[in-house]
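tool_call: predict_structure(chain=1)
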Amino acid sequence: MSVWLGPILQESAKLLQNDGEMESGLKVLWITPLRALAGDTVNALQTSAEQLGVPWRVQLRTSDVGSSAKAKQRKDIPDTLVTTPESLTILLTYEDFRSRLTSLRCVVVDEWHELLGTKRGVQTELALARLRKFCPELRVWGISATLGNLEQALATLVGPERSRDAVIVQGDTKKETEIASLLPAQIERFPWAGHSGGTMVGEVVGMIDQAKNTLVFTNTRSQTEVWYQAILKTRPDWAGMLAIHHGSLDTSVRQWVEERLRAGDLKAVVCTSSLDLGVDYPLVEQVLQVGSPKGIARLVQRAGRSGHRPGVPSRLTFVPTHALELVELAAARRAMHRRQIEARLPENKPLDVLVQHAVTCGIEGSYRSEELLAEVRDTTAFESLTDAEWEWVLKFCKEGGESLHAYPEFHRLQHIDDQYCVTDKRTVRQHRMSIGTITSDAEVQVQYLKGSKLGSVEETFAARLKPGDRFLLAGKLLELVRVRDNTAYVKKARGNPTAVPRWMGGRMPLSSELSAAMREELAAAARGEYREAEMEAVKPLLVLQQKWSRLPSEKQLLVEQLEFKKRHLLLFYPMEGRLVHEGLAALLALRLSRIKPITFSIAINDYGLLLESVEVAPLEELKTAELFSIENLESDIGESLNSTEMAKRHFREIARISGMIHSGFPGRSKTMRYLQASSNLFYDVFAQFEPDSLLLQQSRREALEKQLEWKRLMATMQRLESLECLVERPKKPTPLAFPLIVERMRERLSSETLADRVLKMQQQLEIAAAH
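tool_result:
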């Protein structure tokens, strides 16, 4: 809010000088990454302006605002506009918008860390560069509480040329953050992931009961639905005082929860990251985090949702879903105290976003190639853009490149009198509908047969449902009646759900900073040092791991070989997160199979990877340096994984952002199957007729980075190559091996059968550990 006071006080002084006369026009543009954040921001800015006697109108412009209200804003623009990167970019397609920026003094980018390192962040960079061209004296502020690379974040925000004159302002008052754990009564020495910590529901209910208001954070929307039901089942008298909040709920549902939370009417809200950004709810007394947050910044961010009053510390209580998460929490808290917050690295030359921007600028007005190139290079994302790359982008926008020049719909830019512009009205309409970089599975709206909308589920989930199937959404048990016109019509149901919606992106890997901190905690335990309460709680598990195998130091890599149920298991524990382990497992399987023809089955988690085979793997025949060498790494990854299919999946996003495929118009949306088939067709055309297409090359790079965290994988390989390799041969699955074995079993068993089998295995191993 201190950023807001600058332009408000400046306006107040002008009002005194001008006898209350106020200049009309837009003065402050406030960019927020979340629609849920936007409404609260509008209320806070409007209230403070009124209290300080400045008669500014603060209005909202997001996809939640109706078209008639947006049309009125363009004719009578408010003094302050709170918007998202997508809505701002759409505004920049209107020629008259430039003339309304003469009074613009300040742009504020809220929660900049949420945009940095994403294509939405690049979209914001390009929009800011355009605004700087229109308003050379523009001041730009970025607000962020949790970033490990502030200097780089600053340069990305203001542009590389202005970063030398820009400043970082940090508050003098250090906010106290207290992190504690809700320790289980009994620690499982053979833990496994996937059962959502259901045994802790009673303790969680007890914590909620002791506080006036509680936010219960989970990492996925599916977990949110499950935990809401579990809490309500334990305390049915909380009906009406317990709410649920996540991004797939209808806007009206989310707004109702936010208003009641702000008023202090709710006992607790079970939520995802939809509530962990900068919304201020002063009445929230405590925060519970179910499951590891997987990152230090996320832990700090969520803790900050409580204690939003001067002098009041932020408090978060961690609820583990399995025992090893206690090690993660101990490591995260120690790293937090040392300010080892994760960095967000800027995106580098995502040309699909640049293609979209080139068309956007051509709709707003005509431009010369060299003028827009200079503007684009005024961003961190494209400061190294070459002339050849820029010419390729313009050619692609003008005629679809070499592969699509025969199709008029891809001739979006016209080159007239040495200037580029868009003249086709259908192209203008279609482009405005498609602006943005957020891509996900197509969604199916969910609403009652006779009544309100509840939210949405992904098309892939809805396609598996049959009439009569029951599922959870918006904290309600629903029965599917029918699916028609991209809407699932439902009615209230009784009994138990037959399915729980799953949304893409649910499983987050450990961050590199948290991985390093976790390895440090385990190394301390190997020396007999248990430095945190969580480490003392999990000591029985780690002592047994040490007894049956080893706990590695920071300079050692633990490898276990054992025979289990007539299968040979080879387990590595790099502790580098599931995405890195996915690539590493495929790579190790390939390199071992070159020594001896052998087929491996693979399982991974955040702590390690498992290679299962009928024969013993030839581990001794490969030196550590050879096994983890980065030589021929990219070609080996391409051979060990279906890199073409990976690239095709990511090409759909690129094709959508660059305007090759379109999701359809309102009421006529296209299915995900259609979009994927279309993007696959484009991919094959480029691969055959234009193999040097820059968008094709981008899809391959992004597939490696997003699927396997490519840069981190290379750094991990180099780290592992330098470590001492400890090969242990335990007679039974160790505590670290057990969750990987369960992951392997998960592929072959239903959830109920798996739980029974796991319980039986745990009992057998506990008997063995007792002797």
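agent: The longest helix spans residues 751-770. Proceeding to next step.
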